[in-house]
Each structure stands twice: as C-alpha cells, then as structure tokens.
Amino acid sequence: MKLIQKIKEATRPFLITGPCSAESPEQVMSVSKEIAKNGNAHVLRAGIWKPRTRPDSFEGMGNVALPWLVEAGKETGLPVTTEIANRQHAELALKAGVDILWIGARTTVNPFAIQEIADFLKGVDIPVMVKNPVNPDLELWIGAFERLEKAGIKELVAIHRGFSVYKHPKYRNVPTWELPIALRERLPDLPIICDPSHITGRRDLLLEVSQKAMDLNFDGLMIETHPDPDKAWSDSAQQVTPTELKSIIDHLVLRSKDISTSIISELEELRTKIGDLDDKLFDILSARMLMSEEVGQLKKAHNITILQQNHWSNIIKSRLSQSENYKISEQFIRQIMDAIHQESIRHQTKIMNK
Ligand code: PEP
Ligand code: MN
Question: In angstroms, what is the span from residue 47 Cα to ligand 1's centroid?
C-alpha cells in the first residue's frame, strides 16, 4: 500500500469518504459504489467500532461489518480504512484485509492505547492515520506519530478533526487552525487531511471548512457520506449524500501551492491565526460579562450601587500605565476599557432590575 505516494500524486483534495458507521452490507456497498462512480473517493471509510460519548447509543456493528467494507473496496477497486482503538481492533482489521488503519481522537489522547497499538503493529507494513487528540495538545499528537514511527510504521498521515470545547456556538469541535499549521512546521513531510464533518457537526458548513482547509494547503479531506443521512445511526446531522458530496467537491476553489501564490497561503495562515485570536478575545469577553453578572448579583443582595467610581478609576489608571508593555496606545486602552465598562454596567443593570 503506497498511501503517501497516492496522496502526493492525486489532484487535491485527496478524498477519504464513506459513512460514519457501517450499518448494513447494502448501505456500505451502495454508498461506496456511488461515491466511487462520481470520482469522489481515493479511500473508502466506514466506522466499525464507534467510540460514543454516552452508553446505550449505537456503538458500531463490530467485527461482522469488516467484510462489508472490504467487499466494497474490492468492488470499487479502492483501498479501505476503519478506526481502531486498541490492539484487538487492529488485529481484526488486519485479518479482514483492511488497507489503512486510523486512530480516533479519543484514542490519540491516551499514550497507553497508542503504545499498545504501536507494539502490536511492529513489523507490519500498513499505513496509519492519526486524528488529533480531542484536546488541543500538539505534543500529544506528535507523540502518537513518534510511538508509531519507533514501531517501524513508515506511512503516517495526520487527520485534523478539531478540538472539543464546552458548547461552542458554531462548531462541534473548534478547528483552532494554528495547531495543524504548527504540526506542519514540526513535521513538514507528514500529509495532513482535514475532517470537516467532525469539525462542523453540521452539513451546511462543510463547504466553508473544506475550502479553508484547501486554502491552508491541506492535502485532502475526510467527509462522512451516507445514502440517507437523516436516518444515519450516528452523526446524522453532519453526513451528506453522495450527490451533496459531489456538489461540495465541485464548488471548491483550488489554488495552486506554488511560489506565485505563496503570498495567498501565507496571508491566509496569518488571517487564520488572527481569526483564532479574535475567537479567543470574544470567548474571554463573553466569560467576563458573565462574571460581571455575578458581581451584579452580589451588589443587589447587599444593596450597593452599580458604579463604584474609585474602584473603576483605579482600574483604568493601572491599565493605562501598562500602555508601553502592551504596545498599545493609551487612547486605545481607554476606548476598550470604556466599552467593556459600558457593557458590564448593562449586564449588571439587567440583574438589578430583575
Ligand atoms: C469518526 O471519524 O467517525 C470518528 C469517530 O471520529 P473522531 O475520532 O474524530 O471523533
Ligand atoms: Mn462520525
């Protein structure tokens, strides 16, 4: 299996598509044939063992579904991949003839699990794709590649599927693009695939995130595709039909990676980093206003007025005195602090008048 070579030779994006979960032989076969016919798969995917957040959800068909995926691969002439989370999964997948293994986000977080898989794969010639850990920890992600590399795995690929946070307004898993960008700086030869399905959690954002990945020079995309997404047994909101997948791929604008456009991708990387910082800025502002409301509760309970002039004057004075450290003008500090104060008063007033 020459996965890396295939990725390098393919016209971008290299596509790994197929259902979140294998549900029946017919489901796996029909969706695989259609994606293949549309030219929207270089590798077929299907989950056999599903790590689910809560018990009593569908946890995958298990062992019996392995031949369904392998058959679909034979029928379409495409290599197939499935998620493994432990040594036993790896053993069963190899025995069934799965061509490529992938390690899921919930497994990458656990060095014991990764080491167990790496130890089992010693001497086996099979490509392994590693999803980022659920938490934004670059070293942990790199550590997984190191463990597999030490075990002699030669073909390694990264999959960026975003990072888990509590209740994000837009994403299921926030992309935090600076992390895959940093991974590429550290391991420049490692191909990187973006998984917009698990980043967005919703099909209407797949094109936007896929386009971003292409503009950041990702090598490919992993997109969950199902014959009847709304009836899917897992991740139904983010799956698309083969026809919808084709439309997403057809709408991608592919800019070349060569020198003449290097400014574009450099600019895009910078803008992405700025976007990520702005995301953090607003997360902090939002948390700060919730804190103001707690202050409002306390003032209300003790019958104190909202505006405590001395306290506020001191806060402003101390911020202004740090203008040089921040490399931000005093005027700007003043504007920001006034704006924050106004909004904080609005939140506290809301509490007082409840
Ligand atoms: C999946 O690809 O279906 C999956 C479970 O992914 P992740 O490990 O990214 O959650
Ligand atoms: Mn899924």
Answer: 8
